[in-house]
Amino acid sequence: MFIHIEPQSDTPIYAQVRNGIMEGIVRGELTPGDILPSVRSLAGDLGVNMHTVNKSYHELESKGVIKIVPKSGAVICSPSEEKIPQHRYNQISEELRPVLVESLVLGMSEKEITELVSSIILNVKGE
């Protein structure tokens, strides 16, 4: 698993770790049932504090991405067969809204925004 940490980034390190794990899942580098490295091991590999990795793991668990199993570690969950829950859909919408509004205010067209989103998806998937 490859996670790149940028210490000078405005994005907190725990969020970079969380996002790196989710991108690994999207790219197929991590699959349901895979066990993530221990908090101590991943922290050592990345050169970050154990509490940082622990926070990342707990955020992923709260989002339903992983399940933390005592004495076994953090396991990648299978995506739900059901539609995304409405509360999570609403939460994602609220998180995207300010970015989309800023894009429109700066003069991007709906087409440019759609193309940018498509480009980001392809990039994340490694296509």
Task: Provide a descriptive summary of the structure in words.
The chain has 127 residues and is mostly helical. It folds into 2 domains: 13-76, Arc Repressor Mutant, subunit A (Orthogonal Bundle), CATH 1.10.10.10; 86-125. It has helices at residues 13-26, 39-46, 50-62, 86-105, 110-125, and strands at 66-69, 73-76. The chain has a two-stranded antiparallel sheet. Strand 1 (66-69) and strand 2 form a beta hairpin. Helix 2 (39-46) packs across helix 3. The protein is globular. The two termini are 18 Å apart. The model has no long low-confidence stretch (mean pLDDT 93).
Short characterization:
By secondary structure, the protein is mainly alpha-helical.
> What is the CATH third-level topology name of the largest domain?
Arc Repressor Mutant, subunit A
Helix and strand run: HHHEEHH
- How many domains comprise the coordinates? 2
Quaternary assembly: single chain
CATH class of the largest domain: Mainly Alpha
User: What characterizes the major β-sheet?
Assistant: 2 strands, antiparallel
Helix fraction by DSSP (H/I, runs of at least 4): 55-70%
Strand content: 5-15%
Calculate the mean pLDDT score and round it: 93
So, CATH architecture of the largest domain? Orthogonal Bundle
Low-confidence stretches: none
CATH superfamily of the largest domain: Winged helix-like DNA-binding domain superfamily/Winged helix DNA-binding domain
Figure out the total of helices.
Answer: 5
List strands and helices in order, with pairings.
Layout: H1 13-26, H2 39-46, H3 50-62, E1 66-69, E2 73-76, H4 86-105, H5 110-125
Antiparallel strand pairs: 1-2
Helix pairs in contact: 1-3, 2-3
